[in-house]
Amino acid sequence: MGITFQLCVLAFLLTFAGYSAGFKPVVLLHGILSGSENMVSLGQEIEREHPDTKVYNCDKFSGWNSLESAWRQIKEIGEYLMTICKLHPEGVHLIGYSQGGLLARAILQSFPDHNVKTFISLSAPQAGQYGTSFLHLIFPDLMAKTAFELFYSRVGQHTSVGNYWNDPYKQELYYEYSTFLPYVNNEIMSANSSNFKEGLLKLKRMILVGGPNDGVITPWQSSHFGYFNGSLDVIPLEERPIFTTDAIGLKTLSDDGRLVLVTVPHVNHFQWHRRKSLIRKYILPHLD
Ligand SMILES: *[C@@H]1O[C@H](CO)[C@@H](O)[C@H](O)[C@H]1NC(C)=O
Ligand SMILES: *[C@@H]1O[C@H](CO)[C@@H](O)[C@H](O)[C@H]1NC(C)=O
């Protein structure tokens, strides 16, 4: 009798513990010219507020290696993510910061068998990048206006930045040379286009975070798939063909209420993954 009762209590406690530990694992992907050390504080904040969350902080392609071509990084980091997905059939969440947010999105598209539930993109150049402030982080002497000469070449396409450099004045060269962004955005159709859409449509939620004081992502609306047109006016996501033609599933996600665009002012590029108030307000509520 006594033992049965104790077993019942134990079963109850285990069930209860099971519920309270019910947060899905979270995978973090760092930005350019940095590594997992940059994402530690975000991971710690998640563990503090959601105890027992298993955090996987990807340390692949740190530092200068983060300049390696996008497809190479996507393949290796994608295999790492798929290993984690298999360990957690209940699903995982994925957070990518800056370049890591763009790579993470392309990984979801390239590995449509993933089981990522919520994807959070923190100020990532989802529609590309065209601006000196970003360029100068890596290439101090290069000017945005002439960078196309380097990036839109065979050699330039060996760098991640070249892969998503989107010069609004040189769109013909962009389509001719870029081996990454026009493909993963289904602007150029390929054998993989249907996978690229399927991989995003699988998500339960896609949260795109960015803001006007970012200072690095140019235009900042690229974090929401907005982008410059040929006269440097920024066209918002809803008016761009990638959305209106539902090229990669963004419109479907939006119609279903699964796409959330978050605009936060007064946050510079190096604070998105660090500022606690932001993490608590815009990230944690989406991690269940
Ligand atoms: C695209 O498709 C080709 C041929 O089917 C395949 O070899 C390649 O790995 C695919 N790439 C991606 C990123 O899915
Ligand atoms: C860019 O968009 C603006 C605003 O919609 C428009 O006035 C302008 O003509 C467009 N420029 C080009 C080159 O399409």
Automatic annotation (TrEMBL):
Signal peptide from the UniProt entry: 1-22
One example GO MF annotation: palmitoyl hydrolase activity
Catalytic activities: S-hexadecanoyl-N-acetylcysteamine + H2O = N-acetylcysteamine + hexadecanoate + H(+)
Catalytic activity, EC: 3.1.2.2
Main location, first listed in the record: other
Alphabetical list of InterPro entries matching this protein: AB_hydrolase_fold, Palm_thioest
Cell compartment(s), UniProt: Lysosome
Top-level taxon in the UniProt lineage: Eukaryota
GO cellular component terms listed in the entry, alphabetical order: lysosome
This protein's UniProt keywords: Disulfide bond, Glycoprotein, Hydrolase, Lysosome, Signal
Family: Belongs to the palmitoyl-protein thioesterase family.
Function according to Swiss-Prot or TrEMBL: Catalyzes the cleavage of thioester bonds from S-palmitoyl-CoA or S-palmitoyl-N-acetylcysteamine (unbranched structures) but does not have activity against palmitoylcysteine or palmitoylated proteins, branched structures or bulky head groups. Conversely, hydrolyzes both long and short chain fatty acyl-CoA substrate.
Full protein name: palmitoyl-CoA hydrolase
Record organism: Hermetia illucens (Black soldier fly)
